[in-house]
Amino acid sequence: MIKLTDFLLANKVPLNLHSYKVHLATGKTKPPLQAFFTGEFKEWQEHQRHKNFKKEMVIGLIEYNKNKWLFAGVYKILSYKKIKEKHIQYSTELIPGQDDLIGRIIVEHKRTSRASYLNGKPDGGDFYLSELKEQKLTMAEFPGFHNVSISFDELNVIISQSISSWHSALSNMKGIYLITDTNNGKLYVGKADGKKGLWQRWSDYSKNGHGGNVELKKILKNKSSSYFKNFQYTILEIAGSNTPDEYIDKREVYWKNVLLSREFGYNSN
Predict the structure, then answer these.
(1) CA quadruple 198, 147, 32, 60: dihedral positive or negative?
(2) Which residues contact 246 (CB under 8 A, 6 or more apart)?
(3) Residue 241 and residue 246: Cα distance in Å, rounded?
(4) Could you tell me the CA-to-CA distances from 234 to 89, 136, 146, 176, 267 in Å, in that order?
(5) E-strand spans in the chain?
(6) pLDDT of residue 224
(7) Percent with pLDDT over 70 in the chain
C-alpha cells in the first residue's frame, strides 16, 4: 500500500516531511466531519486547548470509520495566540495544490493510543492510502424516515446542496416533525402540509432557524443570533402528499399531547 505522504508528494503537494504533525480529528460536541461538510473544518481545527501544532505544517485527518480517516488537507501554521485560559487560537492556511484531493482520500491508520496530535515521521509513518473517491465526500444519503436525526448545520448542508436523495424523500411527504433544543431538552412539534412537504418546511428553517414560526421567533429573539445551531431535527410521522391537511392537523395535536410540548416545550398552542 502507498503511504499518504508519498501520494501527496507524488501529486506535488509541498509537504515538509521534517516538520509536520498529524491531527486525528475526533469529537462529539461538534463532530469534525460535520464541520467538514459545512466548510468549517479549518476554523474548527484552528481552535485548540493547548499548543498542539508545534511544527511547520499539520495534516488534518477526520475520523470516518474504524481505522479509516478522511483527508481534510495539509495546513501551514502561521501563528497562534492565547485567547483565554486553556484556549489557543491558531492561524493557518491551506497549502496549494490539493483542492482536488481534499475530501476524496480515505486513509487507513490504526490508532494505538488516545493521542490526537502525532509527530509526523520523515518516512510517513503508518498512514496508508485506502481509497481515492471519485468525488469529494458530502453529506450522507437519506437514511430513511425512521432514522433521521440531524443538526441545524447538517440541515443547512442538505438544503444548500440540494442533496438529491433527501430532496426526493422529503419533498414527496407531508408529516409531523420534532425540533429538539439540545441545550435544554425542550421540544417543538411542527407539521409540514404544503405541496413540497417536509422539504419546503425544513428549507424555511434552514434560512434563519425559525422558519417564520412566531413561537420560535420569540425564543430566538431572547437568545444569541446563532442559538438555533442547538436545534436537532427529527421526523415523528409521515403521510402521503395527497393526505388531507385536516388529518395532518389532528396528528400534530396528538404529538403535542403525547410529548407535552406545550406544557414543557416550545409549542404555545
Answers:
(1) negative
(2) none
(3) 13
(4) 34, 26, 9, 9, 16
(5) 20-25, 47-48, 57-65, 68-84, 87-94, 105-108, 117-119, 128-132, 149-151, 173-181, 187-192, 231-240
(6) 80
(7) 99
- Over residues 143-192, the pLDDT tens digits come to 999 999 998 888 988 998 888 899 999 999 999 999 999 999 999 999 99
pLDDT of res. 214? 87
CA proximity to 175, closest of 116, 107, 255, 57? 255
Q: Output the DSSP codes for 24-65.
A: EE--SSS-HHHHHHTT-HHHHHHEESS----SSEEEEEEEEE
What distance lies between CA 100 and its chain's CA centroid?
21
Q: Which residues contact 124 (CB under 8 A, 6 or more apart)?
A: 3, 4, 5, 6, 17
Measured CA to CA, the distance from residue 163 to residue 138 in angstroms comes to 9
Reported as a single tens digit per residue, the pLDDT across 204-238 is 999 999 999 888 998 888 888 789 889 999 999 99
The answer to whether the beta carbons of residues 21 and 90 sit under 8 Å apart is no
- Residue 264 carries which DSSP code? S
Strands 57-65 and 20-25: parallel
Confidence tier at 65 by pLDDT (50, 70, 90): confident
Give me the residue label for grid cell 491551506. 94
The residue type of 83 is I
Buried b (16+ CB within 10 A) or exposed e, 14-51: ebeeeebbbbbbeeeeebbbbbbbbeebbebbbebeee
Contact 209, 231 (CB under 8 A): yes
**Could you tell me which residues are beta bridge partners of residue 174?**
239
pTM value is 0.66
